[in-house]
Structure prediction request, 321 residues.
Amino acid sequence: MTPRCFADRIGILSCRFPGDAALAISDSRDQHLPLTGILWMAAAALCFSASLSLVKALQDFGMTVFQAVLMRQVLGLIIFLPMLVRSWPEIIGSNVLPRHFVRAAFGFLGMCSAYYSLSLIHLADSVALQFTLPFFVMIFAVWILGERLRAHRVIATAIGFVGVMLIIRPGFGDLNYGIFFALAGAAFYAASDVNARRLARDDPLPAIMVWNFLFTIPLAAIPGTIWWAAPPPDAWWSVLAFAVAGVGAQFCLTRSLSVAEAGLVAPVLFLRLPVIALVGYLWFGQDTEIWTWAGAGVIFLATIWMTRAEAGRSPPQPRNG
Prediction:
């Protein structure tokens, strides 16, 4: 499988494989280190869980989601400053800046929606509902990229919808707005990822990554300034840890995808659910209902089946060496 084909399929295989991580694969050598890839993906799952737990704690301190997004993106830009300086000519030479803005806007809305859902519903419920991201990617890939709507994708999406219904159980439990924010977060993330894949046709990876930071920061800074809530002094360490965990998750995820096949490491990211459920229980006193586990299990199986079906469509390619 060529790197580009591999990268193009990441969005379908992801549980939240950001476009930047997916695109990074195209710049990697063809490697296959299964254990290394699994360990990197497990580290990504832990970092994602830490990031979500910390943003929940920061909201309990009174911080807004806009501030959380702003601080995460500012730190990310600082970390990627060497790339910005080194690749400035090809970054500034982009001819599709409106598309970069659209991609950043979707990502911004995804982060805000997902983070806000954490203040309304249990951590595990939010994470489980965001496992629907691959199905939203499939829908947007058909619409934006013109990909074919294949039968196994439709079936997997229908099964995933059953999983969502098990989690929210309409008619049997109180419907909380947090459910819709969690699903909206998955949808906005998916739109961002698909637009990142579209941008890869026109711009190199550094341009896509840096413009995402440059556009997201002002999008978050405007509402973040209007509704600014100064964190208490003892919360700033949590702010720093949240930002580091968020960037660390992206780094670990990218490293995993650069050394192992997505079909192998993708399921490892579902480790987020038991980890976040444990954190929710120990830190926030949240119990995870059996229906959340059942629904997440259905979504997990549907995603894995769709992953296997996607892998079966592409004939294996001999590896170099």
Q: What stands out?
A: The chain has 16 helices and no strands.
